[in-house]
Specification:
The complex is a heterotrimer of chains A (327), B (294) and C (407). Chain A is mostly helical. Chain A is 73% helix and 1% strand. Chain B has a domain of 201 residues. The chains are: A mainly alpha (327), B mainly alpha (294), C alpha/beta (407).
Chain lengths: 327, 294, 407
């Protein structure tokens, strides 16, 4: 792929996307639709980061809901207990989450195999237990209420349409970051890594470091999304940050396609909305009750079997999800 | 507090540990044959318990039959999982296969909820009677059943894998898939057997646990996670390791809850999982790993 | 088409499809068939004219958090809608209850709330079922200025008082107060507390922590267990070592059943007290003979038959039980009762002031002497729950059935 061609095509795609986002934001007035759109955006932020990890480092995290929760609780606690500026709290939360990711990723990413998946699984569970048990800080399972709104230029982001115009530009920024990363030195290193780890190492790519970098980045994305969640709902409790949500995030990435930066976005949109549709359907026709959970599992399995590259295929299916195994 | 609680903590820890060990043995079976970490293992346990309850309270079968039938049923489920989801992907990357088992477990859990609802169900203990007092601990007769089942299953599987042709073929597939194929072992069939056996072991765990744990559709996940800790702690792939790991996780939980804090009971197990992964990823009983294969 | 463009197109198509799906998924406001679909066709009363008055409801009909408590609430709501419309509606206008399922999920509750308020334009909302889902949408209702009558019990819902938010569930503060009164009468001075680590258990433990010392009762051990734990002998052994005169277990099924069984296993013979979380048949089924002799505070619905004739609530309780049993062929439970009370509060207020959100709120707030399933409600600007500890009676399990515990 020649650089000069990418140079115009990406901005073109992004501009079209930005225009679409703005159009939706200006035309849609119904808070219910905006509410769904905001959750799509928040989920997309996490999924784009996780997509980098799956697509480019060939690793998977089963604990991203934990990082998302760390961001949410950092914002909740720092703003309600210490009266910190919400934006500062968001940054501190992101930094702390990055540090946790570093501590866990550093030793496990040195190893071959799926130790990161196992370690993040354990980490995610511990984080949720702490949310439940550390009452003094987290107020236990009943959660933290009255989280303040975010302010932008003196304007409280207390309506759906204002919040929409915070979340979606951030999604855009995340996409640009992810895209640039893909085309950067680190992105090339990661791509080399995805194709042949041995050859990449021989060519001077610090394999472990590149993987660690992308893992930390994905955790930070998740944390920021979590902070947004906290300020949007103005309430956090431990239940949304469990194993189930971690799995949903992975499903978003796989269904959307991990090899393209657009894939996780598409996956987040599709699954968040599918969730609504299935729930409404189950609600109208009682015999469908409970089947929406089954549908989740079945969709994941069907995608893995029949379209492992996801909805939005990239240059090629990422190593982790490629159908054929090197002999 | 004084030491009077210690015998009970140990007894509880070993009982719980035996359950985790049974789950861990199931993980091992699939892992050592296919390299896959089967996230649906917990669902096999849940299905075992729910089938037993259904056979007993809804079909009114005698208890012995109600406990044995689920084993065959869940073996079938295990084989089916392999046939419909793993086999079509036999050339896929390991990570894909692991994600497939996650999908299967979500689907099975959802189905169980549709079939049995969200309630828990009781099952009478295998042998009636008061709890036994032993060295200051009160032990439920059912706990003895759990321990016996764990030990017997672990031993039987080890014998099977070491001493029978079928078992050795299964191990061969794991050690070197291509070589196994070249000497005429039908690798896919072996993999199917591994899944079926894992289902069977899960069902044993599920039905022996049912009188103690009152199964509901969502017990699988918690058990799978603890069993997984046990498997990793002992060294995934080793059955002796699974037993050791299971008992260690059980004791850790029980002593942690007894002497430190019952609120962080589960966190202890997961924290040790993290520590082991960070410090000694091949587990305590250092089994040679073959993870670079794929 | 080159790759990049194709990818953008794919994403745009996905997003468009997404939007279409969103647009398609909430039932259009004029779609009247959606709710009535599951119900037997009711005879159209010519008396009902005009636009239906729309009341929203959010219940946890599905979801991972234990048994779906919202199911009886949903059934009660459907029943109430039918009853109201069969008996002349609300001042001649039909009542329409639009029910949403929050799947026991905070995020989903927020979305459902927005849908009811904005898309369906309801005058008030009853529910959600759970404390977590209620707290997740309190802010939405305060901002939108729509009355919310929750069916959940957390004290955080009604204290501090929020202008637009009410609750009809018996708060654990009152259950504990009733229990404390009973313990004092029984001369029990030291207790061990075991609680579920779910919101119900933790909140109960906090209240016990506060009320026990006020009543001269000492908590000598305090242990917790996870909702999915299969063995509580460790916690009980620890409790036993502290020599309490009684054990209090605060949780929801199946944990408390395992605690009762484990106490038998450990041959602990001190009395076992539980919470209103076990006021259901399932507990007796799960714990078997270990349930015998367990004493707990419960709403009066459980023992409606055995209440004295003089009890104000007796008739209301019996009527509700009979109607529910008749329609669904199963016995009514406390959670359905919360739904009943919440809806009756709204309907009473609607009949007084009509479908105006602000007037409705004021009318609900000034409700006095409303005899409901959970107790007799006396609301005020400082009390948005309105129940007292008389809402609870002490119940014990004898021969696999409930009876009033002797004082």
């Amino acid at each position: 792929m020649k650089p000069e061609r990418t140079a115009w095509r990406r901005p073109a795609g992004l501009t079209a996307f930005a225009a679409g986002v703005a159009l939706v934001g200006l035309l849609v007035r119904n808070p219910y639709y905006l509410n769904v759109a905001i959750f799509v955006g928040i989920h997309a932020l996490v999924a784009v980061g996780l997509g980098l990890l799956v697509g480019w480092a060939g690793q998977i995290s089963l604990g991203h809901a934990g990082f998302y929760g760390l961001g949410a609780y950092a914002s909740a606690i720092l703003t309600t207990r210490f009266g910190l500026n919400p934006w500062l709290a968001l940054l501190l939360g992101a930094a702390a989450t990055g540090l946790v990711a570093f501590l866990v990723g550093k030793p496990t990413l040195r190893l071959h195999g799926h130790y990161l998946a196992m370690a993040t699984l354990g980490l995610g569970l511990i984080i949720q237990i702490v949310f439940n048990q550390a009452d003094r800080w987290t107020e236990g399972p009943s959660g933290i209420t009255a989280i303040p709104y975010l302010y932008l230029a003196g304007l409280p982001l207390n309506t759906d349409s204002r919040f929409y115009f915070l979340v979606w530009p951030l999604v855009l920024v995340a996409l640009i970051l992810a895209g640039n990363l893909t085309d950067s030195r680190m992105g090339r290193a990661l791509r080399a890594l995805g194709q042949d780890e041995g050859a990449a190492a021989a060519a001077g790519v610090d394999v472990a470091r590149a993987k660690l970098g992308v893992f930390i980045l994905s955790a930070v994305f998740a944390s920021i999304a979590g902070s947004l969640y906290a300020h949007y709902l103005t309430y956090v409790s431990p239940s949304p940050f469990g194993f189930t949500f971690s799995i949903q995030l992975v499903v978003m990435v796989i269904v959307g396609g991990a090899a393209s930066v657009w894939g996780p976005l598409a996956g987040a949109a599709l699954l968040t909305v599918l969730h609504q549709v299935l729930a409404n359907a189950a609600h109208q026709w009682a015999f469908l009750d409970g089947l929406e959970v089954v549908a989740y599992g079945v969709i994941l399995v069907l995608f893995l079997i029949f379209r492992p590259q996801g909805l939005v295929a990239g240059r090629r299916a990422p190593r982790a999800l490629r159908l054929t195994r090197p002999a | 507090m004084d030491g009077s609680g210690l015998p009970q903590f140990i007894a509880t820890g070993i009982t719980q540990g035996a359950i985790y060990a049974l789950v861990a043995v199931g993980f091992n079976l699939v892992y050592s044959a296919t390299g896959i970490i089967n996230f649906a293992q917990g669902e096999f346990v849940m299905l075992g318990g729910m089938f037993a309850v259904t056979c007993y309270s809804m079909l009114h079968l005698p208890l012995a039959l109600a406990v044995v039938l689920p084993i065959a049923a869940v073996m079938l489920v295990g084989a089916g999982v392999h046939y419909f989801t793993i086999r079509p992907l036999r050339r896929a990357h390991l990570l894909t296969l692991i994600m497939v088992t996650v999908g299967v477990s979500v689907a099975l859990r959802g189905l169980a909820k549709v079939v049995w609802g969200a309630d828990a169900y009781p099952l009478p203990p295998f042998s009636a009677g008061e709890s036994l007092s032993l060295a200051g601990a009160n032990i439920n007769p059912q706990s003895l059943w759990v321990m016996a089942c764990a030990a017997a299953t672990g031993a039987a599987l080890t014998l099977f894998l070491r001493c029978t042709l079928q078992g050795r073929a299964m191990v061969a597939c794991a050690l070197n898939r291509r070589a196994a194929q070249l000497v005429g072992i039908r690798v896919e069939r072996m993999h199917m057997w591994a899944f079926a056996l894992a289902g069977g072991v899960g069902a044993i765990a599920g039905s022996v646990l049912a009188p103690i744990a009152l199964p509901s559709y969502d017990v699988g996940l918690a058990l799978a996670l603890k069993g997984f800790c046990a498997a990793v702690l002992g060294g995934i792939g080793s059955n002796a390791g699974a037993l050791l790991g299971g008992v260690l996780v059980g004791l850790l939980e029980s002593l942690g809850a007894g002497y430190v804090s019952s609120g962080y009971k589960d966190a202890f197990a997961f924290f040790v999982l993290l520590l082991v992964l960070l410090l000694r990823p091949s587990g305590l009983l250092n089994v040679p790993t073959r993870r670079e294969e794929r | 088409m080159d790759l990049q463009v194709r990818r953008v197109v794919t994403v745009v198509v996905c997003l468009l499809a997404t939007l279409l799906l969103v647009a398609g998924c909430p039932k259009a406001p004029e779609d009247e068939s959606s709710l009535g679909a599951g119900m037997p066709t009711r005879p159209t009363k010519p008396a009902l004219t005009g636009e239906p008055i729309k009341v929203g409801a959010i219940f946890s009909v599905t979801g991972t958090a234990g048994a779906p408590l919202g199911t009886p609430e949903k059934e009660t709501a459907l029943m109430v809608e039918e009853m109201v419309n069969d008996s002349g509606g609300i001042n001649g206008r039909p009542l329409k209850i639009i029910i949403e399922d929050d799947q026991s999920d905070n995020t989903q509750a927020a979305t459902a709330a927005k849908k009811l308020i904005e898309a369906d334009q309801v005058v008030a909302v009853v529910g959600p079922t759970l404390s977590g889902t209620t707290l997740a949408i309190v802010d939405t209702f305060e901002k939108a200025q729509v009355p919310l009558i929750s069916c959940a019990a957390s004290i955080k819902i009604t204290q501090p008082v929020k202008k637009w938010v009410f609750s009809t569930a018996q708060p654990d503060v009152l259950a504990v107060a009733r229990l404390m009164e009973y313990l004092k009468a029984k001369q029990i001075k030291s207790i061990a507390v075991l609680y579920d680590s779910n919101p119900f258990g933790k909140s109960g433990a906090e209240v016990l922590d506060k009320q026990a010392p006020e009543n001269g009762i000492k908590i000598v051990a305090k242990e917790t267990f996870e909702s999915k734990d299969t063995d509580m002998t460790t916690q009980l052994t620890k409790a036993k070592a502290a020599n309490p005169e009684a054990v209090i277990c605060w949780g929801t099924n199946p944990g408390p059943a395992i605690v009762a069984k484990n106490m038998k296993q450990l041959k602990m013979s001190i009395p076992l007290f539980m919470s209103h979380g076990v006021a259901n048949r399932k507990f007796i089924e799960l714990a078997g003979d270990a349930a015998e002799g367990v004493v707990f505070p419960a709403g009066k619905l459980l023992v409606a038959e055995t209440l004295p004739e003089t009890d104000k609530q007796r008739q209301v309780l019996l009527d509700y039980s009979k109607a529910f049993q008749g329609k669904y062929g199963k016995s009514a439970d406390t959670f359905g009762g919360h739904g009943w009370d919440a809806l009756q509060l709204v309907i009473q207020a609607l009949k007084q002031v009509g479908p105006d959100r602000a007037k409705l709120r004021d009318a609900i707030e000034s409700t006095k002497d409303f005899v409901g399933i959970s107790g007799v409600f006396n609301l005020s600007p400082t009390d948005h729950n309105g129940l007292t500890k008389d809402a609870f009676v002490m119940v014990t399990i004898k021969g696999g059935n409930w009876t009033l515990a002797e004082q």
